[in-house]
Amino acid sequence: MPRVVLLGASVGRDWAFSELPGRVGLEGIVCEFVAHYEFDKRPALDALLARTDGCASVIVLKECAAYFPGIPGAQRAIVDDFVGRCRAAGVVPVLATVAPVVLDRSWSGRLRDLRAVTRGRPRPQDRLRALLAFNDALRLIALEERLPLLDLESALRQDAHDRSLRPELTSGDGLHLNAEAYRRLDAAAASTLTLVLAGDPSPVTAAP
To answer: Are 190 and 26 in contact (CB under 8 A)?
Structure first.
């Protein structure tokens, strides 16, 4: 039975990914979530690939917005290495775009942004700019390497022009997601995994 593993952090944990098949009617597969709370998830990937039983057929790499901004060159190298390790082990790698964050353009939101800067935290617009650049890089990798892409950003953003998180989809902090957001992610995952498990060789991509 194919086993699909989501390798992620807080968004993946709250998604209840192991219950996805029952929620969306994906029969004949097992879904599992493996948590690793750093951008570089290769230690957890190595442990997954070293399993002697219950090995993954598909591994979805899911990064969280909390890890942005980062170092783009280092992030790209980690993704490239993830793809190479999966392929070497005979596992299908799936790249997932990062869920965007809310931009609060009100005066109170701007005040919170200022407080974040004084406390050494990134402003939401800086975080969003960095993660959207990363998402665009993932789309390019998917096209170049003919890889499936689970486009979580497109399922959650305002629209193609305003790529920030829809305010009604946040749990309240502008970063984490609520139940309606996870329902949207369920639909995106069901569509992508159906194609992946059917052996569709084309990358499952969407325009930014």
So the answer is: yes
